[in-house]
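Changelog note: in this version the structure field was regenerated for every chain. One regenerated record is shown below for reference.
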Amino acid sequence: MTSTTYQVTGMTCDHCVRAVTQELGNVPGVTAVSVALVPGGESAVTVTGDGSLATEAIEAALDEAGDYRLAGAAGSAEGSAAGPMTPAAARALPLG
């Protein structure tokens, strides 16, 4: 498993979290998505997958979810199903 945390702009509420989580969950190979919402700022979105995920696929899913943009990758961790961050603000939503 590989987890990568992206900084995403445009998220303001729980609806945004659900939309982003759903669309990223539709990307082939994605097994989990966790969001630490920072309303109006850069939210940390951790995507866990079976292998390396193309940045273009992540950007396309964010665009499909709404007016959300990738600000950059904050970090990645190999072998972690939960992702590299676990702040109290993180919202882990089940996929499927």
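Spot check on this record: The chain has a mean pLDDT of 82. The domain at 2-79 is CATH 3.30.70.100 (Alpha-Beta Plaits).
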